[in-house]
């Protein structure tokens, strides 16, 4: 088939590789100029955490090694208290497990290279989709591409493809913004070295708000503030910025020489959950589908948006296997993935409260120690939610079913132990 993919971001490029491997002719349309030549776009997160779901998708195409060549493993999180106390907490009871800090621009560049190197893939930069007509794709500047059989929107949270589907009766859509924005700042290398331990995702939990930092290969850290919009706007002079950071994030402020100018110059991003149903329609004979953030943008607090989009590609590839490359039936089947993406959308929202408020507390750390102890005592029988989400490819909805079963079972075991203890105590008297 001839397939058009709109959006040559992370998911669009990976999908192009999967479809090309099946022998389809793919054209990738991207609104930006080639980012390998023009550099990263402002306002996108500079780095991201890639974990097992994303790596599994890359591995299936033989791309994992190259894509992860500059990645920095982060086996745990490091909490920074206001008084400078540091607390490390492993993500897994298995010391080999880590999430990986990776540059978005570098990953996108490598996936573009892989897509362009695949037989049957053409990439068209500078093509911003503005409409879908009668078997046509319409782009800014009056460009029209005719004879469209299959169009897949991989054009991100503010998808133009999805906007067209939303105009059709029967398409449900919702968007839910948090009252929070995000802003990126930089901690440059300190005397040529990382200013903090690069083997961790750093978190400054401050109750209502937080800052995180991920390491980069050039020994800098990219920090992201997740603050209420009013708090972000309130720091409107360099003095206020420095005073606030000196009070709330003193250890970071010390190693941020460009703090005030970065703060004033860097944009504020929005945090949104988008839901759409269904993800496919037929438009005047053209099959139109959605994938990645275009189908289900989620907030970034579980580090799963791109991982989930990569796993979408594996699932769509599986649906094409199951239907003998009948795209109409495959896109219909692919809708089963929504049960999973609804779950991760909810978990990502819940995890915000955990990250900004709970991770610093003794109760939270004790609970994680108990979870890891249970994982070691009952290997394969008790597995924490974080472990299943980040270090397995278990479908997200199945993760939730399994966690619920484990909770029931652990509750029954605890009740059994209490009763046995009470009986033993009574007998001993
Ligand atoms: C602050 C932040 C931190 C994050 N951290 C993580 C993380 O740690 N781990 C993780 O897995 N995920 C993370 N994510 C989520 C991740 O960035 C997204 O889930 C991922 O980028 C989605 O990929 P995509 O290809 O679907 O969409 P995008 O990356 O948005 O790509 C869409 C592409 O489509 C192009 N496009 C848009 N409109 C048009 C148009 N009209 N015509 C043609 N082209 C168009 C865009 O230019 C872009 O290239 C984070 C997100 C944010 C905001």
TrEMBL record:
<comment type="function">
    <text>Catalyzes the hydroxylation of L-kynurenine (L-Kyn) to form 3-hydroxy-L-kynurenine (L-3OHKyn). Required for synthesis of quinolinic acid.</text>
</comment>
<keyword id="KW-0662">Pyridine nucleotide biosynthesis</keyword>
<keyword id="KW-0521">NADP</keyword>
<keyword id="KW-0274">FAD</keyword>
<keyword id="KW-0503">Monooxygenase</keyword>
<keyword id="KW-0560">Oxidoreductase</keyword>
<dbReference type="Pfam" id="PF01494">
    <property type="entry name" value="FAD_binding_3"/>
</dbReference>
<dbReference type="InterPro" id="IPR036188">
    <property type="entry name" value="FAD/NAD-bd_sf"/>
</dbReference>
<feature type="domain" description="FAD-binding">
    <location>
        <begin position="2"/>
        <end position="320"/>
    </location>
</feature>
<comment type="similarity">
    <text>Belongs to the aromatic-ring hydroxylase family. KMO subfamily.</text>
</comment>
<dbReference type="InterPro" id="IPR002938">
    <property type="entry name" value="FAD-bd"/>
</dbReference>
<dbReference type="InterPro" id="IPR027545">
    <property type="entry name" value="Kynurenine_monooxygenase"/>
</dbReference>
<comment type="pathway">
    <text>Cofactor biosynthesis; NAD(+) biosynthesis; quinolinate from L-kynurenine: step 1/3.</text>
</comment>
<protein>
    <recommendedName>
        <fullName>Kynurenine 3-monooxygenase</fullName>
        <ecNumber>1.14.13.9</ecNumber>
    </recommendedName>
</protein>
<keyword id="KW-0285">Flavoprotein</keyword>
